[in-house]
Design goal:
This protein has eight helices and 20 strands. With 373 residues, it is an alpha+beta fold. Strands 5, 6, 7, 13, 14, 15, 16, 17 and 18 form a nine-stranded mixed beta sheet that branches. Strands 1, 2, 9, 10, 11, 12, 19 and 20 form an eight-stranded mixed beta sheet that branches. The chain has a three-stranded antiparallel beta sheet with strand order 3-8-4. Helix 1 runs parallel beside helix 5. Bound molecules: flavin-adenine dinucleotide.
Amino acid sequence: MPDKQPYDAIVLGVGGIGSAALYQLALRGASVLGIERFDVAHSRGSSHGDTRVIRKAYFEHPDYVPLLERAYQLWQTLDAPQPLFHPCGVLSMGSPKSEIISGIQTAARMHHLPIEVLSPTDIKARYPGLVPHPDHVGLLESDGGYLMVEDAIRFQVKEALRLGARCLTNTRVESWNAKAGHNITVHTSQGTFETAQLIITAGAWAGDFLTHLQSKFKILRKHLHWFGSEDRQMSDLPIFFFALPDGLFYGFPQIDQWGVKVANHAGGESIANPLKISPAPDSNDLATVRSFCAEHLPTLGGQQRHEVCMYTQSPDGHFVVDRHPEYDNVFFTAGLSGHGYKFAPVLGEILAQLALDNKTPHPIDFLSAKRLF
Ligand SMILES: Cc1cc2nc3c(=O)[nH]c(=O)nc-3n(C[C@H](O)[C@H](O)[C@H](O)COP(=O)(O)OP(=O)(O)OC[C@H]3O[C@@H](n4cnc5c(N)ncnc54)[C@H](O)[C@@H]3O)c2cc1C
């Protein structure tokens, strides 16, 4: 692909979603430039910490399920040297009336997804490392699992470059200008570029480029903790969710020397500037997670690793995937609210379809920005 301007599309922000958009655009033969402020697969945004959960019986809203069906298909097409998707199963535990349990059951019923119901006794027999609450129920989604987040970003960028895309790293987008019916000019720390279509996938920085939405998002500082374990069965765990009064705790099987990764999806400290986020641990968060582990994963040992990451929270916790209200040739994903990564390939496909075909067959009306005004 000749590298000449104007590009068919520029992708602003080559992180979790931008890397997928870059790849999906390159797959369709578009001339595309990705612009990334840091390196590919860095740890300053929202897509690091090794792994992300993928599941289909979506308690957040059943309307996500058709998008997940397509995301699952697309994950299978990414033929990386090491597997990116590990289907170890997802076990969600909570009181029978909790939002998570009833949400999973609703999504599973509406979309005919297989779910196995486990009692606390079944759970203890199958996964001796987990101690469920005696009054809770477990729902096991066998084809759920985890994704290798940085590996998938690197792989999609590498494939996009192989197909002729260009990617500028350590390059900051300063601004963009558009005029109806004209190409868009993107100003960066490495010069100015022209493009027919602009795709904004800037994660926690989305508000800098989507001023109409800036006030809508809250950036949360979130913590990931890894705990060591001598218990070999920790490698055989499924992904686990525990819906408890002091948080929605979740974790991953042990996959390497760092041990079992555990975090609390609830809460988080609101921050003003994502560039100035502190990497320091938070003693309250650690104490809450430790006390959860003591009760529900009692064989875990000391903390081995800690990372900070950002959620970009929308007012209702749902994504915003849309076209810019003033410019027909600007599309974006924003406000992924701490659950967007599993959708990366389908969001990349949607953005590529919108940019190149001006429409997408995927059902995304429920994610439109209109609902926020
Ligand atoms: C702790 C934690 C746990 C999570 N767990 C899960 C999970 O289990 N499952 C799941 O599906 N999701 C999960 N998520 C959410 C998911 O990781 C995010 O929704 C997703 O990765 C966000 O991708 P993104 O592309 O929007 O943001 P990012 O990956 O942060 O990408 C945005 C990119 O834009 C770049 N950028 C910004 N401004 C500029 C600029 N001016 N110039 C150039 N580049 C710029 C940034 O450098 C960055 O690389 C989790 C998130 C966190 C923080």
